[in-house]
Amino acid sequence: MRKVLAAIAASLPACTAIAQTTYVQAGKLVDVEAGRVLAGQCITIDGERIKAVGKCGKPPRGATIVDWRRYTVLPGLIDLHTHLADVGQGADIAEPINTGPAETGFIGAKNARDTLMAGFTTVRDVGTFRVFADVKLRDAIAKGLIPGPRMFVAGTYITIPGGGGEINGLPPGTVPPEMRFGVVTTPAEAAAKAEALFAGGADFLKLIATGAVLAIGTEPGQPELTEEQMRAAVAVASAHGSYATAHAHGAEGIKAAIRAGVRSIEHASLIDDEGLAMAKAAGVWLVMDVFNGDYIEDVGTKEGWPAEYLRKNRETTDIQREGFSKAVKLGVKIGFGTDSGVYPHGINARQFGYMVKYGMTPIQAIQSATVEAARVLGRDGDVGAIAPGRFADIIAVAGDPSRDVGTLKDVRGVMKAGKTVK
């Protein structure tokens, strides 16, 4: 008994430790839940989470003061479509296999830091060629080994042979098995690979429903995974308390993915009116990367990216933006996602201006990257708003982003889980 009591006593200091209190003084605060901007607000943080938000008063005794009274503060931003754990897009289609795991890991660490410093404190990483590289990056960040956003990861792509989730255009046998982990041909295989991905640490599934712009030999409008294959994977995700998202450019692939039960559609470049109506009725989010078409055209042309990439980008960019405008007018749910990795990580916020140009108000664009994105993740009790109980993920910008979303391209302060990192 004495040994037991001694052990309990020894453990008490750790169990009863008082969380560090931080008091953030804001010039203005964007209340993304109400869609308004408030003045004179202060945020009390205990440890990693927000305790209270309200009119400024006397700071709690012993609290660390963060003086952001010159700035507008808002929740840490969320990008639902990133590729942190891989090499960036370029002219060399063999670069992913010619870059070894260690070097790719260092690249991922830099990408993660650049993303966090840009004010994106949470991301959904929607696929890497080398299976589970994203899991390792996520875990390294969570352990505090490297700085980066909170990550939710897919493990790799579930795709058909030679599909939009493959490295194509190389001699047979060139691509190693670890980069073809998610290749399937039947619903049973889709279910088995989905189980294997969750067993390896994936948080959700990424299904390649159509061809891709940036994949040799595939066409964006062409369906790839069948509805039955996607439905089998979705059932596995549901059994694990998770969900699937679908890469889908073409109209028929989009509709098949919605019928199969995915939570969100990535790109949605060629979505038609029926697909928009289906997405709205089913409560499916569209995550449309309406910025990077211009980046691909500009930089891809200068750097000599494959002509096939450039042709497909030109065929989808304008029509995607038209579909985005229709989706906004119809009230379809939209989450913020940029396809970072196609462009350099850290300039994610350039997309906000495009979202406003093509139909959103500044507040709607901000909400797409905060409260709406948190709902897509199923983590709206943890992230996406400055509110009691949420993680203290907070950023500071000069000016008022509810009037000019361009201010989000220059983040002056970043706090993640109560720790100021910038």
Summed up, what is this model?
With 422 residues, the protein is of the alpha/beta class. The protein has helices at 2-15, 95-98, 101-117, 133-142, 187-199, 227-239, 251-260, 273-282, 292-303, 307-330, 350-357, 362-368, 371-377, and strands spanning 21-31, 36-39, 41-46, 49-55, 64-75, 77-82, 120-125, 150-153, 157-158, 205-208, 244-248, 264-267, 285-287, 394-397, 411-416, 419-420.
Structure notes:
The protein is α/β, with parallel strands linked by helices. 35% of the residues lie in helices and 20% in strands. It has 13 helices and 16 strands. Strands 1, 2, 3, 4, 5, 14, 15 and 16 form an 8-stranded mixed sheet that branches. Strands 9-10-11-12-13 form a 5-stranded parallel sheet. Strand 1 (21-31) and strand 2 form a beta hairpin. The protein is globular and about 65 Å long.
Top keywords for this entry?
single chain, 422 residues, alpha/beta, Urease, subunit C, domain 1, TIM Barrel, 2 domains, 8-stranded mixed sheet, 5-stranded parallel sheet, 13 helices, 16 strands, 20% strand, globular, disordered N terminus
